[in-house]
Amino acid sequence: MVSATPPNKSPVSSRLRRGGRRYVTWLTLSLMSFVGLMVLIVYEARWVYPEIQAYFSQTGSLTGQQLATRARGYVQRAQEKLLIASSPVELSEARLSLDLAYGLFDVHIYHQYYACTASSLALIDELAELIDAQQIDPFDAAHALFIPVECLTRIEMDQLDRRGMVINDFSSSTRRHNQVLIYSSLLIFVLGLLFWAMHERQLRRTKRATAEKFSWMARAMRDPLTGIGNRSALHQDVAAYSGRSMGLILVDIDFFKQYNDALGHPEGDRLLRLLANLLGDALGAEATLYRLGGDEFAALLPCPTDQALTQYCEALQVELEAAQFSHPAHPDNKDVTLSIGGTRFVADANSFAMAYEAADKALYQVKTAGRDGWQVTASA
Predict the structure, then answer these.
(1) Mean pLDDT over each residue of the chain, to the nearest integer
(2) 232 phi-psi bin (left φ>0, alpha ψ -120 to 50, beta other)
């Protein structure tokens, strides 16, 4: 008897393993793209947004220009009051304007970048003291205030220039950051589409390989000539029926070699297919059929009692006699006959071996007795 045992490895399994490695590679690339996106976000948060904040900060160049403008306004107001001063009231208002101008003018950034700041502040302070001492010439004081006005105007214009430079730098930096963000987003989008396409392709390959593997496994459990199960399928099905009362029937074609010698192997193959169909018709839909090799068949079917097993064997014998398959080389001048042996057992891995041995002994006893019959025996 020939056992149809599937090989340990298959090309489908190899493709599945290679596909798994490729999937891990693509997953790594996806994670790298995600990390790149996170780096881009951190870059924008650490560099771009602080630049925006610095640009609109109250300590930036905008404030420097505004302070200079307001200080110049107070100095010019003091000039106006001094030019029309005819009473202590105008002098007092001029004194107040000078104090306000001094407070706005006395800024660290002005001392740091503009040399005229110190002398202008000293002049304003001196004029304020003269007003307090009522020793000031209003016209001369108003004329002297042109010095701080000129200084503040220079500061104001320089701050405006600085503001323009900051705006230009900020615009250029913003454009660069926007370009980086746009190109990076496009790159990540394209990579995302690429990874999605690769994932879908791998998914289809995996599904196809899985289907091929199951198809290959199904073919490995089938007899290619008759389409019924083989010896491997029989052992697998016994495990599936574990704990149930089952009947095992072994069938052997009598004088099959003589049949092949007389009619040829193509006709012998045809007879095997016809007998596979006959076994299915005789034993019913509950029976699972197997070709164990050569001219030997087996049937596995639920069987609660020995009487039921006997009825199955009788039904098979009756169906064969009704079919009248011609056997021109039969020694007893009969049509095709079968030797049948059966047994009943509770399915599990250990009991099946004993059941198979018992059914095989029953089959052997039929052959010894002259073939063309059946016998049922108890499982050992």
Answers:
(1) 83
(2) alpha
Based on the domain organization, do 301 and 264 belong to the same domain?
yes
Write the DSSP symbol of residue 44: I
Q: What is the mean pLDDT of residues 315-332?
A: 93
Provide the residue range defining the domain that includes 150: 10-220
Mind listing the pLDDT tens digit for each residue in 154-204? 998 988 888 778 778 777 877 887 787 778 778 877 877 887 888 788 888
Q: For residues 340 and 315, what is the distance between their CA atoms, to the nearest angstrom?
A: 12
**Domain endpoint, select from 220, 239, 268:** 220
Does residue 2 come out as left (phi exceeding 0), alpha (psi in the -120 to 50 range) or beta? beta
Please report whether residue 4 resides in a domain: no
**Sign of the torsion formed by the C-alpha atoms of 50, 55, 57 and 61:** positive
Tell me what percent of the residues of the chain surpass a pLDDT of 70.
83
Sequence-distant (≥ 6) Cβ neighbours of residue 148 within 8 angstroms: 75, 101, 105, 120, 121, 123, 124
* Total domains in the fold of the chain: 2
